[in-house]
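Chapter summary example.
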Amino acid sequence: MDSNDPEQARARRAQHIRIAERLLAAVSAGDRSAQVACYHPDIVLEFPYAAPPVRIEGKDAVDAYLEVALGIFELRLTMTRVHDCVDPDTVIVEFTGEGRARPTGRAYANTYVAVLAFRDGLVVGQREFYNPVPAAQALTATPAS
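The structure predicted for these 145 residues follows.
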């Protein structure tokens, strides 16, 4: 495959956007296995703004992390914007999330930006930026009145 062919680059980018859409749909459905199926075995998942920052390497470690995370938050994610990059194997997506924290039942809403890197048709890197305050607030039990 000629990496300089604009048509091939467009086709690869379009495929990557479809994978990003499947990834967000899997989270919204609470389907961890469908989410993990979008990841390359060498996946690196990063949340630089989490407190403390999180970096998970490898598909098994990411799967274990997601089992806990999806048990805490119920989310509906909606892609709002896709930014094409010069490199067709990198896609930047903006999306919103709404749902609730299961332990408290409190509402949760946030906006996100994710930088997705692809290899062999799968996500090999996901660096996700979001405001950690809404998550902390949703996980804090409301004081008794």
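To summarize the output: The mean pLDDT is 93.
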